[in-house]
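Quiz preparation item.
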């Protein structure tokens, strides 16, 4: 009887020097990034008397959620003392239409540029990509004039329009590159079966494109929710998004500096992008790997 020779790579020990160095480095980097979050959380759960003792790394002796309540509904910015709640709902009203419109238009534009190319489509795509390299500061004043002429300056819909326009270059690039990688035979077969422009888009392209929609959605959610520049320039105080209100609370020069309230307000402002990343992280990686680097 002939002895079977094992094939393949030789199994490595779980605690080999290489693995110990690798996991040790990962633990150190993780602690480096998580330490500020830990400080913010424990500080937001202390009262001011405990914060004044000075040890920012110590856990709270007596946990209190009053700073979170005050950050949400009682913190003052100027004459308004309604906390972040008004800014939160303003951000929601800006985010939802901006997300739906920008992703829909970008997906449709990417579909046309990938599957229904026309004369000059590559030139149009190149010009569109140039928009991604133009500094925002250059366009601030022209956009003020455009929004004023449209009667949208200071309103939430003006900010929705701004976010939609600025989202086009990168999102069209994502969708166009993803759609180019889809099998061309599918579209030919669909056209033989009588499917037209919209039939192919809704029945074939969209069902196969969930990962890239997730990638585009995450980019838009984080970009719109974390925006400060457009929010402070193109809206009025009653329509300020959450990030602008956070800045006003943290940089308030009136009264005592309440670090626990500031930390709680910062965590509340970052909660939406954090939840989105937490629940859609795997799809985000799949979408980036599947289409964002192709084309």
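Solution:
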């Amino acid at each position: 009887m002939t002895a079977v020779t094992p094939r393949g790579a030789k199994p490595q020990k779980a605690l080999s020097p290489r693995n110990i160095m690798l996991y040790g480095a990962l633990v150190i980097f993780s602690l480096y990034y998580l330490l500020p979050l830990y400080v913010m959380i424990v500080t937001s759960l202390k009262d001011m008397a405990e914060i004044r003792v000075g040890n920012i790394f110590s856990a709270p002796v007596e946990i209190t959620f009053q700073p979170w309540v005050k950050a949400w509904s009682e913190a003052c910015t100027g004459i308004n003392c309604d906390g972040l709640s008004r800014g939160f709902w303003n951000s929601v009203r800006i985010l939802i239409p901006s997300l739906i419109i920008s992703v829909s238009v970008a997906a449709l534009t990417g579909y046309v540029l990938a599957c229904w190319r026309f004369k000059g489509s590559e030139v149009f795509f190149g010009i569109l990509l140039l928009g991604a390299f133009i500094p925002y500061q250059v366009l601030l004043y022209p956009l003020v004039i455009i929004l004023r002429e449209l009667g949208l300056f200071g309103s939430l819909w003006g900010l929705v329009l701004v976010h939609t326009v600025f989202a086009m270059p990168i999102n069209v690039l994502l969708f166009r590159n993803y759609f180019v990688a889809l099998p061309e035979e599918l579209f030919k077969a669909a056209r033989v079966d009588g499917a037209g422009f919209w039939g192919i888009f809704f029945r074939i392209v969209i069902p196969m494109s969930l990962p890239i929609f997730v990638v585009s959605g995450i980019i838009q959610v984080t970009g719109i929710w974390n925006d400060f520049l457009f929010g402070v320039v193109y809206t009025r105080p009653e329509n300020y998004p959450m990030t602008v209100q956070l800045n006003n609370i943290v940089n308030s020069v009136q009264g005592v500096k309440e670090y626990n309230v500031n930390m709680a307000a910062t965590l509340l402002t970052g909660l939406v992008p954090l939840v989105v990343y937490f629940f859609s992280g795997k799809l985000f990686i799949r979408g980036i790997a599947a289409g964002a680097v192709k084309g």
